[in-house]
């Protein structure tokens, strides 16, 4: 056999081998909001070069679009919360949750505001991002209730999207803002003062564990079929987050995704993002999640959680 032909055959074999290897990779179709912080992590993850999977990232308009895409099978995974997962499981769905972040929202006021405690919110104009069933709003009411303060009745409430709430407090149309963490961080850089954050609210309610607020949500049946790739993705995701929090070079690569040119704001966003790392996720945290669920069920009169008295079995996915 001529030498040139042998080389040609060897190359064909190598190509076939590489193609076969590539074909064995599980494609994970993940839907994320274009402006969401999960996009930061996924961008950093691209530099890790995982062997078990490849990502197909689909940008979505909002959280509701993500839920629809997941349920219809258009994507395999989204970022959402475990309350919704439990509610869906109660209706027969096999969705499950793996933690992504325990960063939560915060209550902020102007630097020179006379408000320094929840009691001083009485009679004030309070802006609330996320609507009447926002988890932090419900839990804040419970915390105020411990001081015999009915925030729902005594504060003038303004509900709106986070950007609108930020603008309202800047224009002095509201006295305090309960908003999502990255919007609170942007206000802090501009001199606004934090009264309490989501973790502080939970501490006040007796929950000492750090319970993740957001996570990756996917169908359990799909994950069982692609277990190695799914677990590999979660490990790679943690590596990516760690890189963003420890490597300035890695952080600089995703800075454009923060959608701000202000260095101080970028630094504050990074700080708050990294504070949301999930260091522990086990039985204690999951039992705490069930206690939070019970509180939210009562506070929302079942509107947020659905009728189930407890978190549904299988709500949380565990890496084996």
Structure overview:
- The protein is an alpha/beta fold and 320 residues long.
- The chain folds into two domains: 3-102 and 213-276, Periplasmic binding protein-like II (D-Maltodextrin-Binding Protein, domain 2, 3-Layer(aba) Sandwich); 106-204, D-Maltodextrin-Binding Protein, domain 2, CATH 3.40.190.
- It has 14 helices and ten strands.
- It has a five-stranded mixed β-sheet with strand order 2-1-3-10-4, sandwiched between helices. The protein has a five-stranded mixed β-sheet with strand order 7-6-8-5-9.
- Helix 2 packs across helix 11 (227-246), helix 8 (181-189) crosses helix 13 and helix 11 (227-246) packs across helix 13.
- The longest helix is centred in the N-terminal third of the chain and has 22 residues, at 3-24.
- The model is unreliable at 3-22 (pLDDT under 50).
Provide the helix percentage: 40-55%
Rg value: 23 Å
Superfamily at the CATH H level of the largest domain? Periplasmic binding protein-like II
The fraction of residues assigned to DSSP E strands is: 15-25%
Overall pLDDT metric: 91
Query: Could you give a short account of the major beta sheet?
Result: 5 strands, mixed
Can you tell me the overall shape?
globular
Number of strands: 10
SSE ordering: HEHEHEHEEEHHEHEHEHEHHHHH
InterPro entries: SsuA/THI5
Signal peptide: 1-22
Pfam families: NMT1
Keywords: Signal
List the helices and strands and how they pair.
Blueprint lengths: L2 H22 L1 E8 L4 H8 L7 E8 L2 H10 L4 E4 L1 H8 L5 E7 L4 E4 L15 E5 L5 H11 L5 H4 L1 E5 L1 H9 L5 E4 L1 H9 L3 E5 H7 L9 E6 H6 L1 H20 L1 H7 L8 H13 L7 H17 L21
């Amino acid at each position: 056999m001529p030498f040139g032909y042998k080389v040609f055959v060897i190359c064909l074999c190598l190509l076939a081998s590489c193609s076969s290897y590539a074909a064995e990779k599980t494609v994970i179709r993940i839907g994320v909001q274009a402006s969401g912080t999960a996009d930061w992590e996924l961008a950093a993850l691209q530099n890790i070069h995982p062997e078990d999977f490849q990502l197909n990232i689909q940008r979505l308009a909002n959280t509701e679009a993500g839920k629809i895409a997941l349920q219809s099978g258009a994507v395999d995974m989204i970022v959402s919360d475990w309350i919704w997962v439990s509610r869906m499981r109660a209706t027969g769905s096999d969705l499950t949750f793996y933690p992504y972040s325990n960063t939560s929202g915060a209550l902020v006021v102007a630097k020179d505001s006379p408000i320094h405690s929840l009691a001083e919110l009485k009679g004030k104009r309070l802006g609330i991002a996320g609507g009447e069933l926002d988890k932090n709003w419900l839990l804040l009411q419970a915390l105020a209730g411990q001081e015999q303060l009915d925030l729902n009745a005594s504060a003038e409430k303004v509900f709106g999207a986070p950007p609108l709430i930020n603008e309202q407090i800047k224009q002095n149309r509201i006295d305090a803002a309960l908003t999502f963490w990255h919007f609170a961080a942007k206000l802090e850089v501009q001199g606004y003062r934090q009264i309490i954050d989501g973790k502080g609210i939970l501490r006040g309610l007796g929950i000492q564990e750090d319970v993740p607020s957001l996570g990756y949500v996917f169908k359990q049946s799909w994950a069982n079929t692609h277990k190695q790739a799914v677990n590999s993705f979660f490990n790679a995701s943690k590596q990516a987050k760690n890189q963003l929090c420890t490597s300035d070079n890695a952080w600089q690569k995703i800075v454009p995704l923060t959608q701000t040119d202000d260095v101080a704001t970028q630094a504050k966003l990074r700080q708050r993002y990294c504070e949301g790392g999930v260091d522990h996720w086990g039985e204690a945290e999951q039992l705490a999640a069930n206690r939070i669920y019970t509180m939210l069920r009562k506070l929302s009169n079942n509107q947020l959680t659905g009728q189930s008295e407890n978190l549904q079995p299988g709500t949380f996915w565990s890496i084996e």
